[in-house]
Amino acid sequence: MKRIARSTLQTSVNLVFFAVIGTAILSSTYYLTRDTIAATVAQAKLKLVSQLLPPTSYDNDIMQDRHTVAADEMLGTEEATQAHIARRDGKPVAVVLEAIAPDGYSGKIALIMAIHPDGSLGGVRVVSHNETPGLGDYIDIAKQDWIKTFDGRSRSLFSDEMWKVRKDGGMFDYMAGATITPRAVIMAVNRALQYFEAHRDELFVADAQPAKGAAK
Amino acid sequence: MTLTEMKDIAYNGLWKQNPGLVQLLGLCPLLAVSNTLVNAVSLGLATTMVMTFSSATVAPIRSYVPNEIRIPVFVLIIAVLVTVVQYLMNAYLYGLYIVLGIFVPLIVTNCIVLARAESFASKNPVLPSAFDGMMMGLGLTAVLAVLGGLREIVGKGTLLSGIDLLFGEQAKAWVIPVIPDYHGFLLAILPPGAFIGLGLIIAAKNWLDQRASRKVAPRPVAEVLPEAAQG
């Protein structure tokens, strides 16, 4: 008995030793790369926004004209996000919202979209996803133009019934063998538009103060 | 490490024991990501980096790790290295990080990494181990490159698409339209295309090996035959 206990203890100490070293390496890499990762993600976001809204359609500093949007079930967000507002001559042109489709084939699909004041979509883009390469990843603009089918769509023009893939009787194309992915994206966009309808006035607030909820 | 040892290790990794063609280990990412040349080579190089460092780490600590817990420790080392690579890619190669997605963290579960740690690095000194990890990784990368190139040409009619994810916007001009006005052949891009492509490459390797052994073998037979005819 005593021998078993001692060898167990020795082996555990050995394993813990390696775990501690491994964790130390991981956390130092995390802190060393954290700022660079945040900067890279922000830059990628600005690039995405320029795809959603032609830079000539607004004249304000869209990255600065923003307010915090609290986490909301309709947006699929679990943390507060930033809504950016595009204005031209002080009048709102569009709001850029982040949303998450929680039910992709391989987890969450992060989306960003521009919505005009009349509730029509300027465009939608996928920010990040883990969908199967070569199969579900056609939602990504880098692979195919599928995501552009959202351009100009609105809930006032198309009823809930239409916000589905063709297979389910809706208006959106899909690729055979990968319907879960577009379904998730379409539902997430539809929900985000409903959120927009309910919070239109708050989203277009004039000041750049947090409109709702606390900044994280 | 002598020159012959190095040659042996390199020959094993790149050809004789090639992880993608002979050991057939770690095929999940290999088949999933090899739809374009850039994706394939990128994941191959990420794997090579992890294999080189994991073998180089396992070798010096091999005598300090009790035999019973060597697998957990090796997996821990590999997981740490992969996560570090993932952070670095997220920070400096964001576009590629997005494209490769889940397959970067999946390098942890690529059995070829653990296989080399267990079967080579845990029995050899640091330098040969690191070299073995690198050569195995490069062997895998070479197979991925051929497979990715084939699938991209047949599936999309291009070569090097997505190179801008590595080298920025200006690299978009580097994409080679191998077959102009090509409408694509989906099968090659989808997973079945990967299996078919890999099968063809394995067949080609076996054919080359057989031809090489026949070239060496038949000669004495040819000399014997006339005598036999006379007898």
Provide a quick synopsis of the model.
The complex is a heterodimer of chains A (216) and B (231). Chain A is of the alpha+beta class and 216 residues long. Chain A has helices at residues 2-52, 180-203, and strands spanning 66-69, 81-88, 91-104, 107-115, 121-128.
What would you report as the Rg of chain A, rounded to the nearest angstrom?
A: 22 Å
- Poorly predicted regions of chain A are 208-216
Number of extended strands of chain B: 0
| Morphology call of chain B | globular
Q: Tally the structural domains of chain A.
A: 2
Question: Could you give the distance between the termini of chain B?
Answer: 52 Å
Largest sheet of chain B: none
* Helix content estimate of chain B: over 70%
Largest interface: A-B, 30 and 35 residues
Structural class determined from secondary elements of chain A: alpha+beta
Query: How would you name the oligomeric state of the polypeptide chains in this document?
Result: heterodimer
Structural class of chain B: mainly alpha
In one word, what is the shape of chain A? globular
- Overall mean pLDDT of chain A stands at 86
Query: How many DSSP-defined strands of chain A?
Result: 5
Major sheet details of chain A: 5 strands, antiparallel
Low-pLDDT segments of chain B: 222-231
Mean pLDDT across every amino acid position of chain B: 84
What percent of residues of chain B are in strands?
under 5%
What attributes does this structure have?
heterodimer; A: about 220 residues; alpha+beta; five-stranded antiparallel sheet; B: about 230 residues; mainly alpha; globular
What does this structure look like?
- The complex is a heterodimer of chains A (about 220) and B (about 230).
- With about 220 residues, chain A is α+β, with helices and mostly antiparallel strands.
- Helices cover about 35% and strands about 20% of the residues of chain A.
- Chain A is built from 2 helices and 5 strands; from the N terminus they run αβββββα.
- Chain A has a 5-stranded antiparallel beta sheet.
- Residues about 210-215 of chain A have low confidence and may be disordered.
- Chain B is mostly helical and about 230 residues long.
- Chain B has one domain (about 5-135, about 145-215).
- In chain B, about 75% of the residues lie in helices and about 0% in strands.
- Chain B has 12 helices and no strands.
- Chain B is globular and about 60 Å long.
- The chains are: A alpha+beta (about 220), B mainly alpha (about 230).
